[in-house]
Automatic annotation (TrEMBL):
NCBIfam families recorded: glyS_dimeric (TIGR00389), PRK04173.1 (NF003211)
Purpose: Catalyzes the attachment of glycine to tRNA(Gly).
Cited Pfam families: HGTP_anticodon, tRNA-synt_2b
Descriptive protein name: Glycine--tRNA ligase
Cited InterPro entries: aa-tRNA-synt_IIb, aa-tRNA-synth_II, aa-tRNA-synth_II/BPL/LPL, Anticodon-bd, Anticodon-bd_dom_sf, Gly-tRNA_synthase/POLG2, Gly_tRNA_ligase_bac, GlyRS-like_core
UniProt-annotated binding residues for substrate: 101, 218, 265-269, 372-376
Recorded name of the encoding gene: glyQS
Catalytic activities: tRNA(Gly) + glycine + ATP = glycyl-tRNA(Gly) + AMP + diphosphate
MF-aspect GO terms: glycine-tRNA ligase activity
Top EC class for this record: ligase
Length: 513
């Protein structure tokens, strides 16, 4: 089996080859950690966004959506804590001159210990067969228990040092664990320093009057500053939510791993405004709700897990990640944060405007608490895309590359293929395209042998191929080929729309949540 690095390289090259993702400004040799979405990528991204938006806004009568500007008054970021606390600890290697996030170096070290645990578990599972009890093994096997304690101890110490801003201890930890530069192997490190991740820019045409601005590092603040506008004009009653999707910008220290960590990316965030004191129950409820949303896409329960934060962001009293098994291991896909009244209370303080809710049941006003769900759209794209890309061994000793995208998210729902480029078959196929295009994105393809066209559509992620042949001219039937099973069925042309709709309709997928 190919190793993780090879699989990830294949993901990146496939995304380019099939018009999903290109390096930004490629003709000028690109821009680090900035990417463009191609003709298929833009569709897949739009479908993921829509799947999130419908689940949040359309299906919850107490959640509404907004679209706030990227530019915000600079005081916003003072109030939100980003000017003072939106930092990452960086460390440079003196020999290679490479820069790293100090916490990520330690976390990667822990991931290696966790990989050892996985190896022991897999070995034992093979040895014991059906009688294997994973939980019991994990809690009693001395080697596994030792690894687990070591990993927990390291993460605990890292969390504590970061919380106390004890950067000297973070460096001491890196030295004690003998962590080397992953590229050069050198252990010659500088001290750990804090680095603010916000991009600065200027608003205004003259040097004297220009206002220093930041590009928003999260979309959430556009929701907080509009809390009262939406609550009053929408006559919203607590609990209620405000959702938003949009671009965010972070000057990431290390922006590796393709679209996993970008400098310009898109977030899908929802702030749920609640009564103070109820945050624990809403935190649990939203963790469960969001996991169900993920699972509804059918990408495998084993690919997800929760990870509770040891180190809390400056605004949170509880936080967990939904992690996904990317080609490079389990990593954060979405965050669920209990943000208390941190943001609204600070915006009150800095703006001098009351940001309170009058609760008719309690007969008093208060600053609501907030429960946030925050997912990166690009990161979700990578989860879907990398999980869907598969190499399959076929019975005739050949392989096929297939992009098994959840049909609801696929950019093109069906390809219509005339078997031959003559005998009136293209005209019938084109008529079918003209009929289906009102409901779905469909493609027409008449080039090459039909087998090659099937493979092309498999690699493109198209769930259905519909072939028009000579029999079609006689009895108006066509074959529908299903991407995942490669099964073909002969149906009347009039049934095609219904068959596709049943498999791709967002409504049907959303019902699984
Ligand atoms: N408003 C809360 C917030 O922004 P976060 O954990 O910093 O929280 C939320 O970010 C999500 O945004 C992450 O779980 C991730 O999916 C996505 N994200 C964050 N930084 C990113 C980056 N540099 N590139 C791509 N996605 C990113």
């Amino acid at each position: 089996m190919a190793n993780h690095e090879d699989i990830f390289k294949k993901v990146i090259s496939h995304a380019k080859e099939y018009g999903y993702i290109f390096q930004s400004s490629e003709i000028y040799d690109g821009l680090s950690a900035v990417y463009d979405y191609g003709q298929n990528g833009a569709e897949l991204k739009k479908n993921i966004r829509e799947y999130w938006w419908q689940a949040m806004v359309q299906l919850n009568d107490n959640i509404v959506g907004i679209d706030a500007a990227i530019f915000m008054h600079p005081t916003t970021w003072k109030a939100s804590g980003h000017v003072d606390a939106f930092n990452d600890p960086l460390i440079d290697n003196k020999d290679s001159k490479k820069r790293y996030r100090a916490d990520v170096l330690v976390e990667d070290h822990v991931a290696k210990i966790e990989a050892k645990i996985d190896k022991e578990v897999n070995k034992a599972a093979k040895r014991f067969g059906d009688a294997f009890d994973k939980e019991q093994f994990m809690s009693t096997n001395p080697r596994v228990v030792g690894y687990q304690e070591k990993a927990n101890g390291i993460l605990k110490r890292l969390g504590k040092s970061l919380e106390n801003e004890d950067l000297a201890d973070v460096k001491a930890l890196i030295e004690e664990l003998e962590i080397a530069d992953p590229l050069s192997g050198s252990k010659n490190w500088t001290d750990v320093k804090q680095f603010n991740l916000m991009f600065g820019t200027k608003l205004g045409s003259t040097a004297e009057s220009a206002l220093d601005l930041y590009l928003r590092p999260e979309t959430a603040q556009g929701i907080f500053v509009n809390f009262l506008n939406v609550q009053k004009t929408g006559r919203m009653k607590i609990p209620f939510g405000i959702a938003q999707t949009g671009k965010a910008f972070r000057n990431e220290i290390v922006a590796r791993q393709f679209i996993f960590r970008m400098r310009e990316f898109e977030q899908m965030e929802m702030q749920y405004f609640i009564k103070p004191g109820t945050q624990k129950e809403w935190y649990e409820a939203w963790k469960e709700k969001r996991m169900k949303w993920h699972l509804s896409l059918g990408m495998g329960e084993a690919n997800y897990r929760f990870h509770d934060h040891e180190k809390l962001a400056h605004y949170a009293d509880a936080a967990a990640d939904i992690e996904f098994k990317f080609p490079f291991g389990f990593k954060e896909l979405e965050g669920i944060h209990s943000r208390t009244d941190f943001d609204l209370a600070n915006h009150e303080k800095y703006s001098g405007k009351k940001l309170q809710y009058f609760d008719p049941e309690e007969n008093k006003s208060y600053v609501p608490y907030v429960l946030e769900t925050s997912i990166g759209l690009d990161r979700m794209f990578l989860a879907v895309f990398s999980n869907s890309l598969q190499e399959e061994e076929l019975e005739n000793n050949t392989t096929r590359t297939v992009l098994k995208l959840p049909a609801v998210l696929a950019p093109t729902k069906a390809a219509i293929l005339p078997l031959l480029k003559r005998d009136g078959l293209p005209e019938v196929a084109q008529k079918l395209v003209d009929d289906l295009k009102w409901d779905f994105n469909v493609a027409y393809d008449e080039k090459d042998a039909v087998g090659r066209r099937y493979r092309r559509q498999d690699a493109n992620g198209t769930p259905f191929c519909v072939t028009v042949d000579h029999q079609t001219l006689e009895d108006e039937t066509v074959t529908i080929r299903h991407r995942d099973t490669m099964e073909q069925q002969r149906v009347n042309m009039s049934e095609v729309k219904g068959i596709i709709a049943k498999e791709v309709a967002m409504k049907e997928w959303l019902k699984r949540i």
